[in-house]
Specification:
The protein is extended. Strand 3 and strand 4 form a beta hairpin. The chain starts with 11 loop residues before the first strand and ends with a helix. By secondary structure, it is α/β, with parallel strands linked by helices. Helices cover 54% and strands 11% of the residues.
Length: 566
Amino acid sequence: MARTRKELQVNERHIYQTELTQCPHCGAPLVAQRHYQWRKTVQHLDQVVYVASQGKICRNAQCPHPGQVYSAAAAQRETVPGCTYGLDVIVQVGWWREQEHLNRVQIHGRLRERSVQLSEREVDHLYAHYQVLQACAARLDKARLTQLVAEHGGLIISLDGLAPEGAAEQLWVVREVQTDTVLVVGWLPRVNHETLAALLQPVAALELPLLATVSDKEGCVKKALTTVWPDVPHQWCQAHYVGNAMKPIYARDSALKTELRQQIRAAVRASVGEVLTDSTESDFSPQLVGGLAVTEPAAPAAAPAAATREQVVRALAHDLQQALARQGRAPRVLSGLPLWADLQALRDTLAQCLQVAEEPHLRQWYTALEAHLPAYAPAFAEVQQAQDWVTAIAAILDQPLPTATDPGVGGDAVALDLAHHLGRVADLADLPPWLTHFRDDLLRLSARYWSGLFHCYDQVGLPATNNAHESLFGQTKRQLRRQRGISELREALLRHGAWLVFRPEATSPEQLQADLAQVSWAEYATERARYDRRQAQFHQRSRWRHHRDAVLQQRLADWVEATSTC
């Protein structure tokens, strides 16, 4: 498709010269070049400007950097390399996309209303510029972190990774907890202590004191943290500790629920289906006229009529269906125990109804429940006992964390309470086999986590969990869904996830523009090259999937040329 030629009317001409007058390396006077270093026409939101930058150069032959060209900083604040739209346009696109959740078509329409000439596809390019600028602006700011160290005594570092479903790579983020600042982001095709230690090196290179770290207790994470910062307290996420303790309980509970539900459904399916199918009642029957729902005047409320025998049977059938449809959420929310309690309560109610009057369907349901529930009582009692142990652990750990004015209970006191609880559990005798196995696993798990469970009760600002990182990943996913209107995020996360985790602190487009204007062209070029390399990987993948024959023909041509020179 042929490109539409832009018809731009330049409103102003901005010719910038380097602000420096002396060489920063040798002190010699800088000489202006006779030509423009670069020039281009730039579209802003309110005008079109011709921008040119005239650099200066050091002529001192003894200078350690002879011939280096010094650019005008003011010119670089107009736009970014490789772009003919002003920084205000780039910032506005990012603001609309992230703060107002507008899509490409809507943003294009708003820019056209402001007489900015561009295609819809150009909106995506402008948003890519914005992502790169945001990443640059959020880079390690040693001055800010040094001020934080002066205020709090040191940094608190959090480390966690996100693995998109079906992806070979994982997105890992290093974050400063007290300021909620993203420090380092990287894609790791292989996650081990060496790659994680390399990811942490930019933070370690700052040589700023660390108060503590917080992370999940994975083997490679622990080894990387203890390698980089061997003398720093490492807090293991308590939520993952409790969650890992609950996993065997959830698995046992789910297996019991599935088995019990299958048996009950097999016994009552035909009867329940007969009751619900025979009913002539309709819960929802709107009147439709021309596609519009007709709203009729509300009739005066009548006194509720007494339920009939058939209505009560039908209601109990619905109750049985709802009980059998119980769902849990791994690993903390069980479904088997609530199902067990629901069916017991329903069985007792059916027994009471049958004492009043016989009914064949109710009798069949009661008989099925009475026949199957007793056999599962011991197993569910074991699940309940195991859950009580873990619930007690969570309650012990759920203590107020220290603040600047309240030191709290202290890590030693919490550790002592947990040790007493686990000791009582360890002393229990004559436990069933499954409960004994679970008790032994729980004690081993607690021993592995023990060294990193209690630092948060002694260090102000150190969280007990790593859930804030999970929230960051959740926000990134929700932002992608809002922007793209898709539920499958693997490809989008792989492409742009490393640039989406940064959150601007600005509260207005003007403040955001002032923050991004501090990014130098050199910083932008470095980060843009990283961004382009990432996108090139997916471009190659797309070419292979959609133009395989052309790719193979090019490989053959390259091979012929390469071997002809041998």
